[in-house]
């Protein structure tokens, strides 16, 4: 079944193309009559991602919008004495990357704490913590994030469920509570000082949707899976409350700028923030009013009860108006956890943990209640679902709600965030129902080497990110990184989408690779459609936002193995050059 949203977009693009053609003809006939643009990029390849406009040589920008695209000769009509001209010198310009699923303040916070993404083993983690303790006062918490035991070269011999015990961590940090988040965000590791702050001991029961991992003698190892991490929330919040309100706000302002710097450096001009409570949205709105949001945010409301949302959602609906940097019209829910932490909800048990088929983090009934509220208030529902059981349950509940309320679900553009493992029976349902698969291509190649250890070779091949089958059956696929789970590296995730190349030099189910054009659309136009913003974002069509990234290489033609060498040379948001590579 063809995707009606795509058809509408293409028809609209043909209409725009006809208009642009007339404008180009006019410019040749009366070039001197063209008002001067503020900015012109010329002498390169401009991939508009608009199927009616194709690829051009140059682009003109006035204010925050694209004025025209065309040949160098055509765009010369827009150059005046005050126009800033950027010589592309053969480089590749395209719409700014839209991060389809990430955690904005989480990215900023990750720049303020221990970065554990590149450690090779547990001893390196302990060494980094010891260094932080040397600089800390007694009682001060040590925070870190990014470790992943399946990517280490070894684990201690007495590991439980493949993860170390916290004995060595206790030795280097007896007086400083330590909290080390797993790369996925779906587990965390704590030392005994942190557990004591939260009152957790061998008698503490597992919470619903979570696991306190224990030694054979029943002592907590320090690893807290999924919702068990929340048992530490009160202790962490008490520690953070020692800051004044002014200090806390400045910390968040610093995170906003750190996140923006990292995003702009990677060519990201818009960011789908996968989960912010109303207080955080209020903070973002304050920054937007001050003109201090450096990139555009599409924020999903999160961690509010159904009762609160039913009351508050009408006051938080924000759609794009003018040169908008903050839009809110969606809700984020989470039905299961992550595969790496054995939290993804599966149709069959884990191969390496046969006693478990995953964890349910938020009940189907509660999410279904959210979905009904969303329909009433015109909000999109975006549900985290990684395991094949979680994906099926989410599709089922979407369909039930639409049928019960008598609405057509396709125009609602509801999403399944991650959509990592899908039973073949459920693949066609995405296109049939109009449910968007919000994937992060980099997850497939980053996790690929160890996915079979969780699912077995056959299940891994049959269910893992089946993009080609989704596209064939009419589904819309987006791309992102889930930063800070992965670095906000759009080039790396694009490369993953078109190559499926893993870090071990092998390709993970390469038959599901996207074409170059599909990969580009997934990171631009498709993400705009997934946010109801295709009228202002996603292509370099005249009248849309002048959100542009200039790259050193042509992503559509450069040899596949050279794609990762591509650099972001310039990032433009709303016609303003926000980043230039030095």
Explain the overall architecture:
Among the domains are: 1-96 and 539-582, Urease, subunit C, domain 1; 105-240, Diaminopimelate Epimerase, Chain A, domain 1, CATH 3.10.310. It has 20 helices and 24 strands. The protein starts with a helix and ends with a strand. The chain is α/β, with parallel strands linked by helices and 582 residues long. It is globular and about 80 Å long.
Instruction: Determine and state the CATH class of the domain at 1-96 and 539-582.
Output: Mainly Beta
What does the radius of gyration come to? 24 Å
Annotation, overall tally of beta strands = 24
Output the CATH homologous superfamily of the domain at 1-96 and 539-582. Answer: Urease, subunit C, domain 1
Task: Estimate percent helicity.
Answer: 25-40%
Q: Assign the CATH architecture of the domain at 1-96 and 539-582.
A: Roll
Distance between the termini: 47 Å
Structural class from helices and strands? alpha/beta
């Amino acid at each position: 079944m063809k995707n009606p949203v795509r058809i509408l977009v293409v028809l609209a693009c043909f209409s725009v193309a006809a208009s642009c053609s007339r404008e180009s003809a006019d410019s040749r006939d009366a070039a001197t009559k063209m008002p001067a643009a503020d900015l012109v990029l010329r002498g390169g390849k401009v991939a508009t991602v608009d199927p009616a406009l194709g690829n051009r040589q140059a682009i003109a920008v006035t204010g925050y919008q694209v004025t025209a695209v065309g040949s160098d000769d055509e765009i010369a009509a827009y150059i005046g004495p005050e126009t800033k001209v950027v010589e592309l010198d053969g480089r590749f310009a395209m719409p700014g990357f839209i991060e389809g699923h990430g955690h904005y303040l989480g990215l900023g916070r990750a720049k303020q704490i221990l970065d554990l993404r590149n450690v090779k083993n547990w001893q390196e983690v302990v060494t980094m913590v010891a260094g932080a303790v040397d600089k800390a006062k007694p009682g001060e918490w040590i925070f870190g994030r990014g470790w992943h035991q399946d990517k280490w070269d070894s684990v201690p011999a007495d590991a439980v469920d493949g993860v170390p015990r916290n004995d060595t961590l206790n030795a280097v940090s007896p007086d400083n509570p330590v909290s080390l988040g797993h790369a996925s965000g779906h587990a965390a590791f704590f030392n005994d000082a942190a557990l004591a702050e939260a009152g957790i001991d061998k008698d503490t029961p597992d919470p619903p949707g979570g696991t306190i991992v224990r030694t054979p003698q029943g002592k907590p190892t320090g690893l807290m899976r999924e919702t068990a991490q929340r048992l530490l929330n009160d202790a962490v919040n008490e520690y953070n409350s020692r800051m004044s309100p002014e200090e806390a706000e400045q910390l968040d302002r610093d995170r906003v700028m750190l996140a923006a710097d990292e995003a702009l450096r990677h060519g990201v001009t818009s960011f789908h923030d996968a989960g912010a409570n109303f207080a955080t949205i209020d903070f973002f709105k304050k920054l937007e009013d001050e003109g201090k949001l450096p990139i555009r945010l599409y924020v999903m409301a999160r961690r509010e009860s159904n009762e609160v949302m039913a009351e508050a959602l009408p006051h938080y609906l924000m759609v794009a108006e003018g040169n908008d940097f903050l839009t809110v019209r969606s809700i984020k829910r989470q039905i299961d956890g992550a595969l790496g932490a054995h939290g993804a909800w599966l149709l069959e048990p884990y191969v390496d943990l046969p006693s478990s088929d995953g964890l349910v983090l938020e009940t189907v009934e509660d999410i279904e209640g959210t979905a009904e509220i969303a329909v009433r208030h015109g909000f999109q529902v975006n549900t985290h679902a990684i395991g094949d059981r979680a994906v099926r349950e989410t599709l089922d509940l979407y369909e039930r709600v639409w049928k019960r309320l008598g609405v057509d679900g396709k125009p609602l553009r509801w999403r399944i965030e991650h959509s990592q493992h899908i039973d073949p029976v459920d693949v066609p349902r995405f296109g049939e129902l109009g449910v968007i698969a919000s994937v992060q291509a980099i997850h497939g190649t980053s996790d690929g080497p160890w996915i079979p250890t969780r699912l077995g070779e056959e299940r891994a091949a049959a269910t893992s990110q089946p993009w080609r089958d989704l596209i064939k059956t009419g589904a819309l696929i987006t791309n992102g990184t889930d930063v800070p789970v992965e670095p906000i590296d759009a080039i790396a995730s694009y490369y993953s989408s078109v190559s499926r190349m893993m870090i071990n030099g092998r390709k993970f189910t390469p038959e599901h690779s996207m074409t170059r054009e599909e990969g580009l659309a997934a990171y631009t136009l498709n993400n705009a459609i997934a946010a109801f913003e295709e009228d202002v974002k996603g292509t370099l069509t005249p009248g849309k936002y002048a959100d542009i990234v200039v790259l050193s290489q042509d992503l559509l033609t450069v040899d596949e193995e050279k794609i990762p060498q591509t650099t972001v040379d310039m990032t433009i948001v709303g016609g303003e050059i926000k980043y230039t590579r030095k």
